[in-house]
Amino acid sequence: MTGNSVTICWFRRDLRLADNPALCDAASRGIVIPVYIDDHQPDGPWHDGAAHRWWTHHSLSALAEALADLGSRLVIRRGSALEVLKSLIKETGAKFVAWNRLYDPQSIKRDTEVKEKLRSLGVEAVSHKANLLLEPHEVANKQGKPFQVYTPFWRACYSSLQPSVPLGAPKKLVSPSVWPAGMQVADLALLPKIRWDGGMEQAWTPGEAGAAKRLAEFADSSVLDYAGRRDIPSVDGTSGLSPWLAHGEISPRQTWHAVLAAQRLRPGAALPAGVEVFFKEITWREFAYHLLYHFPATTDSPLKAPYARFPWRKDRAQLRAWQRGLTGYPFVDAGMRQLWATGWMHNRVRMVVGSFLVKHLLLPWQEGARWFFDTLVDADLASNTLGWQWTAGCGADAAPYFRIFHPVGQGEKFDPDGAYIREWVPELAKMPAPHIHTPWEAPPGVLAMAGVSLGQSYPLPIVDHSLGRKRALEALASLKG
Q: Do residues 276 and 292 touch, judged by C-beta distance below 8 A?
């Protein structure tokens, strides 16, 4: 099992066969050894959270089955990526290693080291663009600097973008005569020891096939209503593709072209409202990677320097109440419980619960970012960082410092009948619509008929909205000096 025709294809967050440039490159060279390396460091910065690892287990299982259908297999090992690759090269005689690029600080550091070391050993290491439409180094403003506001980013880079056609999956992969040893997916112990993942199993189908099915359903019809329905959490109005994108089971290029094809839109043609809004959301993800690449410290530090002296509070009890969905604000609590049960939360609600944490409670955005990163199946460092810095007002996009989402008003606007609240806060299920968003204001008789005992079956608000808003505005205004 030696010779220049042996190529190691290193899978990471690109767990798919279709539109996978590294895999296609490897397949074109001859013998292919697909490899996944678990170099997870539990004590490292921003390590994969529990929900993400759950998804990875099922995604790796699906990838292994798909490779077996091509007459191949997935070699799984654990350890330092560089050391594992060196061992595999020695065992197989591989002269090529191919992978698709990642853009977070830790991956860039690791991949640079791996590429330099392998090349010094006479091994050709080749990386590819696969997970973004435009890579961060390909994009700059008129001054040659990174964008820091989304709208100019969209207009300059994406409003007229015509991504190339996605690559097809290989029809067959040439296997070595003897396979190197590897672990089973179960050996990685990615699933929780105490099985709390029943809700996620009901909600999701990890893997490339699940991604393709969801994309087809969305592209064929739902995308046309996307602009009007994406803010209503009680309906299936979003694409729901974020977990598959986060694990690379589908590419943004596939997503873009699938929508164009399903709606019979030629590249460059005027876009229906729903399609344009959806493409802007894909671009928002690209913007997140643009910012993370150019400003890697923003995972933990505010992009806007004055926010480094923001007067954050410490209150473990209130943080815990927020995490558990026991704030006393039904719309906020519904979102946090949906997150815990399914590993996902509606995007509109993400903004509301985030604003509540950093504005009403004055608790650090980093606490929210870490909780989301641990509990989201679509945990993505770039998108998570952008979202939380945007919510806190300390990030890249233009936003008035006084933007504070009203936790009641947002619910009344986007969940007027309380359907979303009834699903995720069942103790309020019998509350009539006029009172479900503010149970603490309901007459005693209404509470009694609904079976609600404030402070017992459902908590009173942990902070008064008016006082929380006033405190936040004072804290924000203090930065202006």
A: no
